[in-house]
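S.,

Sequence below, as promised.
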Amino acid sequence: MHNLGKVRTIRNMGTVQSNNGAARSRIETIADEIVARIERGALRPGERLPSIRGASELFGASKNTIVDAYDRLVASGQIESKPGSGFYVSTHRPKRAEAVEPAKVGAVDSVWLLREQLEKRYEVRVGDGRPPAAWMEGSEVGPYLRPVSRPGQRSLPESYGSPYGLLPLRQRIAGLLAERSIGAEPTQVLLTQGANDALDMIVRQHVEPGDPVLVDSPGYYPLFGKLRLAKARLIGVRRTADGPDPDDLAAKAASTGARIFFTQSLAHNPTGCSITLPVAYRLLRTATEHNLRIVDSDPFADVLSNTSPRLAALDQLDRVIYVGTFAKTLSASLRSGYIAANAETIARLADLKMITRANSSGYIEQIIYDLITSGRYRGHLKRLIGRIEAATTQANDALSRLGLPVFGQPRGGFYMWCELPSHIDDTQLSRVAAERSILLAPGSAFNPDATPAPPAMRVNIAHVGDPRFASFMAEHRAP
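The prediction came back faster than expected:
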């Protein structure tokens, strides 16, 4: 009664591999083994577990390892500690989570798509906007998601700090921007809680109710949601394989009087395509002629070439507000990004940040700074670039086999834009797919206005090779 029965020996194993390939510690292995025996009924509620010494001998692990494993089980409510007596299987264990069924499909729109990015109810995630967790926190970066202590350096900020964000990280970002030929002092960099937070602040500062606002079409649907909340009037600028159409931008700026244009020049979401240098020059000329401010998001900057044509490099932050983030290249859980702009714009946004958010997370900013300066981030990026390149090739092959044409020549990001046969309703297709636990991102969700658009869908290169997606599309593609 005081032992765990036939327990798999883990002596001298160090770490073992879980199903997803991530290394798991002995502490986790021991804790999971005990939970498994509890769930199988081999250990009953109220039954006493072996002593620390007894479990140490049984598992071939140190006493400290057993103490940590037991502490973890106490914290999770699986076992109870009775001082002077020992550890017992809890009589009030948490219930096992039931399998989550796919949500009933209501309106297939941008709100539905954003919700599914977070809740992850669907098994096949071709329409996901994020890479697999194993590409980020589940792999090389995971063990280092904590501040690195150095002599004389505090790991945790003592107070809110500057509203501009952690100075050493802003200095390092200014250096990264210089590598992209964007000249910026640390005072021209404002740290945010990710790119979405940056866009929200820019919308609050520069958009009034009723204002005409120019956006990519197709474009970034979370931005559309923010602009609609601000009661702006969205006007789509046609997106080509070479970037926003300069003629369309000029015509709509002239006809509407819009004074701001939101775009994503490189590895565009949702098409995956990037702007060319001639188009970039024409866009900036149009911006000057029509007194346009351009907000350019660059979420994949760290995995793209520093020589890629960037509006902020050509403009040197005169009319361009540049938005960056670490969420796409580190982890969606590390909500940290930044805005680079002229000093006056950044000062106003810093005031807005104080009023609406107090500050961004100094703790997360310290983690990112340590990852960058230790060289770990650079090593992670090299591996991530390799994964993106391999997945892009595989996605092109998979879509070609399905007879789904890819728009332009996407590379460097996570997305491709697939045109669908004209008889298909992309919204209805997504609804049917959801009933099979397949998440598709219909082209209609990326349409900023009521202008009719050919049926299409955004696909995530990491998930497009799933055979269940191939089977579904083969079934529904024919008229």
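The CA atoms of residues 3 and 424 lie 62 Å apart.

Coffee later?
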